[in-house]
Amino acid sequence: MSKGFLVSLEGPEGAGKTSVLETLLPILEEKGVEVLTTREPGGVLIGEKIREVILDPSHTQMDAKTELLLYIASRRQHLVEKVLPALEAGKLVIMDRFIDSSVAYQGFGRGLNIDAIDWLNQFATDGLKPDLTLYFDIEVEEGLARIAANSNREVNRLDLEGLDLHKKVRQGYLSLLDKEGSRIVKIDASFPLEQVVETTESVLFDRMGLAK
């Protein structure tokens, strides 16, 4: 690739983004694709420290605007320190969550002003958007049941939220899908992992112009 390609993975809690990425990574590397995988919030030292503050289960008193601003701060540091250099080096960068998470969680979920979130995202990223966003869709109850059944997964502050917030988040993602259907591709995450990986691979390879 002459320039980098930015992919973000999005979805409600328990959609299985991480499992798909772990399975897909060796396939990409076999194709000779230089891949950087990273996550939000986190990805770099400062970002990981902010992540600890955001997701600490004891921080239930955190205000919604505080939460949003912490995500935005982590996003900016992560971008300039890790993501942009990788894109400039021509790598495929796959991010576990990016700008759409703020709209879905803090906008639709918390009820904060969407226009303000869009402005903050623009400010933090200098207008950068993914070349492709893979949205892994799953019914909220099924996603939360997966989390409850996975004893190895960290339990964070968002997992303690009520069902209503998670339903609003999913509606937020579906709204974004309607608005930006050329960038965001919906993948049914309720199917077995192997099938979800195969669909993801097909979409990604097609967008990048790679042969399967």
Structure description:
Helix 1 (17-30) crosses helix 8 (193-208), helix 3 packs parallel to helix 5 and helix 4 (99-109) crosses helix 7. The protein has one domain (5-208): P-loop containing nucleotide triphosphate hydrolases (Rossmann fold), CATH 3.40.50. With 212 residues, the protein is of the alpha/beta class. The protein has eight helices and five strands. 37% of the residues are buried.
Rg for CA atoms: 16 Å
Spatial arrangement of strands, main beta sheet: 2-3-1-4-5
**Average pLDDT over all residues:** 94
CATH topology: Rossmann fold
**For the record, what CATH class applies?**
Alpha Beta
The number of helices is 8
H-E order: EHEHHEHHEHHEH
Model regions low in confidence, pLDDT < 50 over at least 5 residues? none
* Oligomerization status of the protein chains: single chain
| Form type | globular
Which structural class is indicated by helix and strand composition? Answer: alpha/beta
Helix percent band: 40-55%
Total strands? 5
Percent of residues in beta strands? 5-15%
Task: Indicate the CATH architecture.
Answer: 3-Layer(aba) Sandwich
**Superfamily (CATH H level) name:** P-loop containing nucleotide triphosphate hydrolases
How many domains make up the 3D coordinates?
Answer: 1
- Main β-sheet description: 5 strands, parallel
Question: Distance N terminus to C terminus?
Answer: 16 Å
